[in-house]
Amino acid sequence: MTIQDSDSGTTIKRRHRQEGPQKHVIAFIFSIVLTMIAFASVLAGGVNIAFTVMLLLVMAVLQVLVQLGYWMHLKDKGHMIPILFMAGGFFVASLSIIAALYWMWW
């Protein structure tokens, strides 16, 4: 990308910083570790069921954040609109689930 400096009239060249495979490898390893923790919690067997369910939910949320951040590149600049639409969809889905549960138990 080339930028023209208005004060001195010189041209400044800026290079787009490339993201190397290191971050993708780290994200992949983190995803594998999260999956292994989830499997180990279920295979343990003697653990409280409520604790296992909560641990699985936490692992699922962390997995989603890793997937969206690194594989879908939502951590980069210029991705605010997709993030807002996903947040809106999450809000509408949550509201629908709450309304359905309320309607069933009322």
UniProtKB/TrEMBL annotation:
Q: Which UniProt keywords apply?
A: Cell membrane, Membrane, Transmembrane, Transmembrane helix
Q: Which InterPro entries does UniProt cross-reference here? A: Cyt_c_oxidase_su4_prok, Cytochrome_c_oxidase_bac_sub4
Q: Where are the transmembrane segments?
A: 24-43, 49-71, 83-105
Q: Where is this region: Disordered?
A: 1-20
Keyword Transmembrane among UniProt keywords: yes
Query: Which protein family is it in?
Result: Belongs to the cytochrome c oxidase bacterial subunit 4 family.
User: Where is this protein found?
Assistant: Cell membrane
Q: What is the lineage of its organism?
A: Bacteria, Bacillati, Bacillota, Bacilli, Bacillales
Q: What is the membrane topology noted in the UniProt record heading this document?
A: Multi-pass membrane protein
What protein name applies here? Cytochrome C oxidase subunit IV
| Primary location | membrane
Q: Where is the composition biased (Polar residues)?
A: 1-11
